[in-house]
Amino acid sequence: MAPLRSLLPLAALPVIALPVIALLAAVAAAPAQATDARAADARTADARAADDTLPPVDPPGVWHRIGLTAETTTSTCIGNPVTPLCALDTWYACFLRDQPELCRLIEAGVVPPPLPQPRSVNEWREYRVVYARRPSALDPVDRSTEGPLKAQPGDILIGVMARVCYDSLQAPRCQTNIENDPPGVFMLRRQGDIWTNPYYFRPRF
Questions:
Q1: pTM recorded for the entire structure
Q2: Burial of 115 (0-12, 13-18, 19+ CB in 10 A)
Q3: Which phi and psi angles does 161 have, rounded to 5°?
Q4: What are the backbone dihedrals phi and psi of residue 6, each rounded to the nearest 5 degrees, phi first?
Q5: What is the tens place of the pLDDT at every residue in 141-189?
Q6: E strand residue ranges, 43-168
Q7: What is the dihedral of CA 60, 139, 111, 179, to 10 degrees?
Q8: In b/e form, how buried is each residue of 174-199, taking b as 16+ CB within 10 angstroms?
């Protein structure tokens, strides 16, 4: 009969073999997972290339600025909503500058209450695009069965994070507690040569 100490390595083999087998399986699956990820990225890029009306998502730290003056505004197309982002700029300027004619231009027939007016020219609003896509049947804006609130072919949904900033452009002070808030959502629609804003909502979840 073999000594007990000579049997211990054999008894330990199943315990050792299981992690080794799992490791080998993970190594074997890694190339396939990487291929799947590259394929998904390629599909996303292809979809965006095929739908060039969707604005790009803004990387962290990139903001669109709308203020009372040209110095505190990055947009050059307020009042000329020939692109989805120009329509967003026009929407913000409508409320911040108290210019209802801008809202009428983009046909913002269903709008939230006016945004608080800036206290001075040293206060402005900033937004960045966190997603842009076509509507789906699950979107809240699609719950209306009639009228302009129902998403139509060609509409675009743009989710934005927005914040208030003030003081100076060189050393601005901005809201910092917004990253966990749900984005505001604009539904935009092309009407002839311009983009309009039939609907805006801010999810409460």
A1: 0.68
A2: middle
A3: -100, 135
A4: -80, -20
A5: 545 545 666 788 889 999 999 998 988 888 888 887 776 678 888 989 9
A6: 64-66, 123-133, 156-167
A7: -20
A8: eeeeeeeeebbbbbbbbeeebbbbbb
